[in-house]
Design brief:
There is one protein chain. This protein is an alpha/beta fold. Helices cover 59% and strands 13% of the residues. The protein has helices at 14-25, 29-51, 53-64, 73-120, 124-129, 132-139, 141-174, 176-223, 225-230, 234-286, 292-333, 427-434, 457-462, 478-483, 491-500, 504-508, 527-541, 557-571, 606-612, 615-622; strands spanning 345-351, 357-359, 367-373, 379-383, 388-395, 404-411, 416-421, 442-447, 450-451, 464-467, 476-477, 517-518, 545-549, 575-579, 591-596, 599-604. Strand 8 and strand 9 form a beta hairpin. It is elongated, with a radius of gyration of 36 Å. The two termini are 26 Å apart.
Length: 630
């Protein structure tokens, strides 16, 4: 069963991660300047509006007590001024929230684009060694937390910080004595925030990790649901999921428990603070060291002081969670891309009347050619024929584990080379090396006499077509899935490729024929039909070299016989590498390589290998289906 990922990671450099997020937002610098300006106005309006309570109480309310005929013009003026200040603050709050929504949305769009683009540059090895669900969580959970931080967390944090600063200054101006009491309560509040906020931050980070594990496990089980049911492992995987889910539940419960308990504690402390301030302020007023207006304004500032501190502590937890997610996103973006030091490219070409190979457009082309730059700025052209050679190749997926040992082989243009052998013998590995999904440790591989390391990877892979054992279809029409082999293929070429693979007949019987929408990796087709579409996709690409990795393993014997002629047409004139389970499919190969433990132990054509009466003879005479463990 799948094992849990490694230990919990903590953000390595929160400052660096935050600066990188801000660099994404830098393109909106003028909007950000306006946001900061609006936040200052919003926070300042709250602070200034509260200060007007002092003159309102001292200059108007108290003098008006017991008076019958009073002049309300000044009172109304100051109320209008307060209203205008609060209105400006409300509008500024709306404006900066609206601007931050736009900035956050566009910033996350750029982050997702960079994340997806970076993923396309990664080598196959990366995807072979990382759970797909964990990669998906970076596009979903981690970007969601980042969006919340950019859109709400940072603005609220700045706003709360400015409000606390402004309120504190005004409290010092109004009453230094009462401010000392505020500072004493502030020390207590900060201590509480440090203890509870620290616990909450730790569990929020843990929650993100556990969520990635759960998502990875779910995706893996969805993909392997048939295997689960075949071996009746529903109970076991449910138990393992319960274990992962419990870990997530525990982390989430602790994270939110500490986060949610913080506000009530801070709220009650603020009430205690308010009561103490009212008592002390009342005493100071009675003693004549203060006045009622000052006390009224100060009490309001006291309420305004504790609430932003609570918000700062809450946003601090949110920001920690977002930074943990952002670090995971940036770690993927910063992964080392697939190296490509090639200089040779693949172009369409034709021979001029003098017999010299020249580059041309697709319509005038008669062949493919390798285009190599020369130091003087000119180019040489070599026709692509499909001559592939391995010379003393040694390879291992891991440094201390060799898979292929001193492999030497060649495939002349137009030859069909077959690989047979037990599971793990290295058959598929050889094809993975031809298209440079992995690079060899020792030896050389040449393609038409050119080391494949000199050929740009996209051009190298464009000259090859692979039909894999597991056919993967994309969401879209049947026609689009076949055309994936060559995007500029016409409808006629798509249908011709389908006929070549013997897929045309069943396609015509689909509800909308070639325009039938396939979803869920072609779930509405049989395994054999999906494989036929995969073969048609390779046919429409029209490559010089074809690789068939157990291409007919999912096709029944009758269907295999029907497409045999079509496959022969597809392979005609091309260099073909075949990995076969059924030995009946490789009898007409020009050369058959028998692999065992990463070495070629026998080679030759079908008849010569039978005459040797070695491993191939044992496999062939024992059964047309290979005994993989024999």
């Amino acid at each position: 069963m799948p094992k849990h990922p490694g230990p919990i990671r903590k953000p390595g450099d929160a400052k660096k991660t935050l600066l990188r997020i801000l660099s994404y937002m830098g393109v909106y610098r003028w909007q950000l300047i306006l946001v900061v300006f609006c936040i200052i106005i919003s926070s300042g309006a709250g602070v200034a509006g509260t200060y007007f309570l002092k003159p309102v109480i001292n200059d108007y309310l108290l003098p008006f007590i017991g008076q019958k005929d009073v002049d309300l013009s000044g009172f109304i003026s100051i109320l209008c001024l307060m209203g205008a200040i609060y209105l400006a603050g409300a509008f500024s709050t709306y404006l900066y929230n609206r601007l931050m929504l736009n900035i956050a949305t566009r910033t996350l769009k750029k982050v997702r684009t960079d994340l997806f683009s970076a993923m396309q540059t990664l080598p196959i090895k990366f995807f072979d060694t990382h759970p797909h669900g964990d990669l998906m969580s970076r596009f979903t959970n981690d970007t969601d937390t980042l969006r919340e931080m950019v859109g709400m967390g940072i603005p609220q944090f700045i706003s709360s910080t400015l409000s606390v600063t402004g309120v504190f200054i005004m409290m010092v101006v109004l009453s230094p004595a009462l401010t000392i009491l505020v500072l004493a309560m502030l020390v207590i509040m900060l201590f509480v925030v440090k203890i509870i906020g620290g616990k909450s931050g730790y569990f929020f980070k843990k929650q993100q990790q556990e969520l990635g594990r759960v998502n990875g496990y779910i995706e893996e089980m969805i993909e392997g649901q048939k295997v689960v049911k075949v071996f009746s492992r529903e109970t076991e995987i449910k138990d393992e999921f319960d274990e992962l889910n419990n870990a997530l539940c525990e982390a989430a419960t602790n994270a939110h428990a500490f986060a949610n308990v913080l506000m009530p504690i801070m709220g009650n402390l603020s009430y205690l603070h308010y009561a103490l301030t009212a008592v002390v302020g009342g005493i100071l007023s009675i003693m004549g060291w203060s006045d009622i207006g000052t006390l009224g304004a100060f009490l309001q500032y006291t309420r305004s002081f504790s609430q932003p501190i609570t918000q700062i502590s809450q946003q601090f937890n949110s920001i920690l969670s977002a930074l943990a997610g952002a670090e995971r996103i940036f770690s993927l973006i910063d992964e080392m891309p697939e190296k490509d030091e090639g200089i040779v490219t693949l172009v369409r070409a034709t021979y001029d009347p003098q017999g010299v190979l020249k580059e041309t457009d697709a319509q005038g082309a008669t062949c493919w050619a390798w285009k190599r730059p020369l130091p003087d700025g000119n180019f040489t052209y070599t026709e692509v024929k499909g001559d592939v050679r391995f010379e003393h190749v040694t390879f291992g997926y891991e440094e201390n584990k060799t898979v292929l040992k001193d492999i030497s082989l060649y495939a002349k243009p137009g030859q069909k080379i077959a690989f047979v052998g037990s599971t793990g013998a290295g058959k598929t590995t050889i094809t993975n090396l031809i298209n440079r999904f992995y690079d060899i440790q020792e030896g050389t591989i040449t393609y038409d006499g050119i080391p494949i390391t000199d050929i740009k990877k996209p051009d190298l892979r464009r000259s090859l077509s692979m039909v894999l054992q597991d056919a993967h279809l994309f969401t879209g029409t049947v026609r689009d899935n076949i055309r994936y082999g060559r995007l500029n293929a016409t409808d006629e070429e798509v249908e011709e490729a389908a006929k070549l693979a013997n897929a045309h007949t069943f396609i015509r019987h689909l509800p909308q024929g070639y325009d039938t929408i396939l979803t869920g990796d072609g779930g509405n087709l049989s395994q054999g039909q999906r494989q036929l579409l995969s073969i048609a996709r390779a046919a429409v690409a029209d490559p010089p070299v074809l690789i068939l990795d157990e291409a007919t393993s999912s096709i029944d014997t009758r269907t295999e016989a029907l497409i045999e002629k079509g496959m022969d047409k597809l392979m005609a004139g091309r260099t073909v590498f075949v990995i076969a389970h059924r030995l009946s499919t490789v009898r007409n190969s020009n050369a058959i390589m028998v692999l065992q433990n990463g070495e070629i132990i026998e080679r030759g054509d079908h008849n010569s290998l039978l005459e040797e009466k070695g491993k191939y003879y044992q496999l062939y005479t024992g059964s047309f289906d290979m005994d993989l463990d024999e």
